[in-house]
From TrEMBL:
Keyword ATP-binding in annotation: yes
Lineage: Bacteria, Pseudomonadati, Pseudomonadota, Gammaproteobacteria, Cellvibrionales
Keywords: ATP-binding, Nucleotide-binding, Transport
Name of the protein in question: ABC transporter ATP-binding protein
Pfam families membership: ABC_tran
Signal peptide per UniProt: none
One MF term in the entry's GO annotations: ATP binding
Domain ABC transporter: 5-234
Amino acid sequence: MSDILTLEGVEKTYDTGFTALTDVNLSIRRGEIFALLGPNGAGKTTLIGIVCGLVKATAGRIIADSHDIQRDFRQARKLIGLVPQELSVNIFESVWDTVRFSRGLFGCPADDAYIEQLLKTLSLWDKKDARIMALSGGMKRRVLIAKALAHQPNILFLDEPTAGVDVELRRDMWAMIRRLREEGVTIILTTHYIEEAEDMADRIGVINKGKLMLVEEKNALMRELGRKSLTVFLSQPLAQLPASLTRDDLQLAEDGTSLTYRYSTAEADSGVSELLAQLQHAGISYQDLQTRQSSLEEIFVSLVEEKA
């Protein structure tokens, strides 16, 4: 799969001396969904702003589908759609005029049939003549999405797209994103809802304090950095663990009714078989076993804390 967006040594230092980004190198594959995760102030929005031409980089080079963002800005920017965090529309205009005007801004010929279909897809058609100021927060968010898609971009940035929106819009939005990906659109999103990234993304990038900490296939990240826990439900409660079983990765519940064993999914030998054999040797019987995989959120939090 070829790359559609490449960032080479991108940095941003503001006049105040604050460094928002440091030597960011990243390649986004054509047609993938890429999730960029990081705490508040990590540099996610600054990075998006640089790619979209809203913020000027201090150093580095960005190529969007063979177009250099600095040397060939118009052609590069025409390929990119952006759904920002904040409302950025004229609230006195109608939905139809706002979306139609956005298409013209990128030099695209008028295509009312496409705009109509776009508004219908986003459940905005019955609001097409309404002024944006009269819309609910969820409907305004739909307008931002329609504006971003009006010129039919190949790359779509979603900066915290579901923050503060209702469950119905969130569901509709992710259904639409899946359709766009099927049509070949590349999606880059930032989100605080890590379960969304876990469900939607092909690859995950983690950024913290302006530095890109890692980029990995989602499934590989879960395998390499995830941990599993095995809970052993005992037939009889234990007052304490036998000396032969005292170890950091094995904990006895306060009520003595279960044991929890934690292990890495990256290791070839999980140690589960050895543990069960040790229990049998110690004369400890059990009635049930339960395993649990670490979530992406837990992995993300541990990564940020480790690099803090």
